[in-house]
Amino acid sequence: MAGNRTALVVSAHAADFVWRCGGAIALHAAQGVEVTVLCLSFGERGESAKLWKQEGMTLDRVKAVRRTEAEAAADALGVHDLVCLDLGDYPLDLSKDNKMKIVDVIRRVQPSFMLSHSQYDPYNTDHMNTTQAVLECRMIAQAWGHDPGAKVLRAPQLYLFEPHQTEQMGWKPDTFLDITPVWDRKRAAIECMEGQEHLWAYYTRVAEQRANHFKRNSGGQSGGRDCRYAEGFQSIFPRCVDSL
Question: 112, 114, 202, 223: least surrounded by Cβ within 10 Å?
């Protein structure tokens, strides 16, 4: 049904794509969409506290563990290609050269749609800086004068997945996706992220809460569609449609 559709998820750290859009990845992968996940870092410094509490831990060992977790989660979700750039975290190194690496991935994948973080996150600036870089790189990938002769990107929608504290981030969802059919895959991927076990129950509750919003906005008690688990997204660009 999906033909040759592709999607690109740009994740600041190794676990972000699991918590925030693992259901969307699994659902579209099951429909035949080739989903590429681009991890800019392993979250080795700022999102691996459980590992750093172990005696004798080193940066390379943390990276190795986080890579293994991300690969296992990607397999559980049906990710077509997991790309890890290892740009470091806290802070991410988003130099011009590293942005060109992101541009190269975008042009290679030619995504039908993209997903990344909220545009503001005072608790984790790696997240919002990732999305700012994604917007910039999307723009560059559309430029005919960048690497002339290479295939130019069209105009994929960029969906912002849910941040950890929505009220503080100014994130306002306009799209709810029913992920009930693939919830078991998302939960399996969540449990691959052993370094952040404290988030397993939290993101299960988020999915249940968004399911309530899905039901309400699909018609509520007047014929609304049932839903047990959902994910919310905020679109950046206008959507061009033939009917409402």
Answer: 223
